Automatic annotation (TrEMBL):
Signal peptide: none annotated. Pfam families: Amidohydro_1. Residues 87-447 form the Amidohydrolase-related domain. This is Amidohydrolase-related domain-containing protein. GO terms for molecular function: hydrolase activity, acting on carbon-nitrogen (but not peptide) bonds. PROSITE patterns: TAT (PS51318).
Length: 453
């Protein structure tokens, strides 16, 4: 099963793989071995088609998918799993998570960094056990956590991260007390949230360029910039435009020079349009954009990274009436935005954007049913698999996992797969109960949960 086991053979390699019922295997040995798993008698949703295949077999070799065909065989000694006619699909991905935000921001600012790291690792494991094998962290100092997961020390999804989000003074990422001055007016060199790698205060072209470059120094795979007002911000009403076109263009250009892209937080039409015009390639939210701006997004080939559940559930305790009113305003824009996105054929990614306690984070899976107002079950599943995989690939050479595809069941893709009870193409609510319905969770050929063997 997926529960952490005690250290074995640590002296040999110093990193472990949580291999489920296959036992505990040193990570480097696993990477070098040509292990095989044969899964038989499954109906496959491949991440792209609208329907399931007939009963078939899937062969995994190492960390990748080797073959998908009826009546496959594998050498003696290969692990064998009988799917019993169940549905097999790609591991899920989420393009807008905050693995580090497991407390409200004011509690987090008073918390030791090592405890925050422990909570982040716990949330990473919980995310994997909900079936998410790859995530894009859009603001947070999580590259150390990603390294620990990649080395096999802890279970969790693959992580692409932006490191700190860039915020202007009084912008979405500014949670400083009003009695604390800015750096230029006698304030501290770094705020508490900057120390965690969650945000970076930067004003003017020179500062935003330095901030972007420092993020790349810290291992960022893309850049996140907060260019519009927010639901949960302290000082920025939802309607304001944050950062000038010159500042946005400077960061977009820097991201291009690093052969990756700029992602931006924005709700209003004004700030969304400005970001697209200056070179942003991923719009996070965008709820209040107009038809002309949606057309611009499609013309630019940019992505619309959408979240729905966060606007449809009550904000956790501690948020003000003003913040709750902004949430309602953002929610009211969803219908128009989603209709326009479908009308213009926008590239739609799926994310959740949940922050707060583990109780709030557990609502992650409700994103599937929340989207049924606008999309078919097949469309939602494609968003969470193959379409998210395309946005994942946009990081190009800054993608730490190379050009191996995610979110699809095809030869050469990462062996990330789920076997489940029920058919999510017919009833997507099965995705909201992963503890009950996910029988197999595999990431990179390693089984983290197995209730079938």
């Amino acid at each position: 099963m997926h529960k952490r086991q005690f250290l074995k053979s640590a002296a040999s390699f110093g990193a472990l793989a949580f291999g489920g019922s296959s036992g505990l295997v040193p990570a480097r040995a696993r990477a070098q071995a040509s292990t095989q798993t044969l899964i038989t008698n499954v109906q496959v949703f491949d991440g792209k088609a609208d329907d399931l295949t007939a009963a078939t077999s899937v062969l995994v070799e190492g960390d990748k998918l080797k073959a998908i065909a009826p009546n496959l065989d594998a050498p003696a000694g290969a692990r064998r799993i009988d799917g019993g006619g169940r549905v097999l699909m790609p591991g899920l991905s989420d393009m807008h998570v905050h693995l580090q935000w497991n407390q409200d921001p004011f509690t987090l600012m008073r918390t030791r960094q090592d405890y925050v790291a422990a909570l982040t690792l716990a949330e990473a494991e919980a995310t994997l056990m909900r079936g998410f094998t790859s995530v894009r962290d859009t603001a947070g100092g999580v590259h150390g956590v990603a390294r620990a997961i990649d080395e096999g020390l802890f279970p969790g999804p693959r992580i692409q991260g932006s490191h700190a989000s860039l915020t202007m003074t009084a912008g979405h990422g500014d949670f400083r007390n009003r009695n604390v001055g800015t750096r230029k007016f006698g304030g501290p060199a770094e705020s508490e949230l900057e120390l965690f790698g969650l945000t970076r205060h930067a004003d003017g072209v020179p500062e935003v360029l330095t901030a972007a470059r420092d993020n790349f120094r810290q291992g960022a795979n893309f850049i996140k910039m907060l260019v519009g007002g927010a639901v949960t911000g302290l000082y920025d009403p939802l309607d304001i435009a944050e950062y000038t076109p010159e500042e946005i263009a400077a960061v977009a250009g820097e991201a291009r020079r690093w052969n990756t892209y700029l992602s931006v937080h924005t709700y209003t039409d004004l700030s969304t349009k400005a970001a697209l015009e200056q070179g942003a390639m991923s719009i996070e939210h965008g709820n209040l954009m107009t038809e002309a701006t949606m057309e611009l997004l499609v013309d630019k080939g940019a992505w619309l990274s959408t979240q729905t559940g966060i606007f449809l559930i009550p904000l956790p305790d501690g948020f003000s009436d003003a913040q709750k009113a902004r949430q309602q305003q953002a929610a009211e824009g969803l219908d128009n935005m989603m209709a326009l996105a479908k009308q213009y054929g926008a590239k739609i990614a799926l994310g959740a954007d949940l922050v707060g306690s583990p109780v709030e984070k557990a609502k992650h899976v409700e994103e599937f049913t929340a989207r049924t107002t606008w999309f078919s079950n097949a469309e939602i599943l494609k968003q969470a698999t193959s379409q998210n995989g395309q946005l994942w690939a946009l990081a190009g050479p800054r993608n730490p996992y190379g050009d191996t595809p995610i979110g699809v069941i095809e030869p050469g893709a990462y062996a990330d797969l789920l076997i489940m009870e029920g058919n999510p193409l017919e009833d997507i609510s099965v995705m909201t109960k992963p503890e009950e319905n996910l029988s197999i969770i595999m990431k990179g050929g390693v089984v983290y949960k197995d209730t079938l063997s």
